[in-house]
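Project standup — Tuesday

K.O.: blocked on the structure for the chain from last sprint. Re-posting the sequence here as requested.
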Amino acid sequence: MKKSTSIRRKVREEEGAELRRKIGARIRELRKSKNMTIKELAEQMGVTAGFLGMVERGHRGFANYRILLMSKILDISVDYLITGEHV
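H.V.: unblocked you, prediction finished:
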């Protein structure tokens, strides 16, 4: 593998990790603003509280359909979950 290819891959991975951290922080903030526990939101999402905790910390991500579900549960746009901006 070329050195430039591995550098690009590493940059993409780092950008993805940063995006997951930002999305996770927004999810935590929104959940708390709705006075929901992590367990309550996880149950509504159909995931475990442990998995949701990993998402909130940026260690894991959601499939697209779960992002749609979360936006409905938290009453926020998908745009805001992803970008942090109201579109």
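K.O.: great, moving the ticket to review. The mean pLDDT is 89. The two ends are 40 Å apart (CA to CA).
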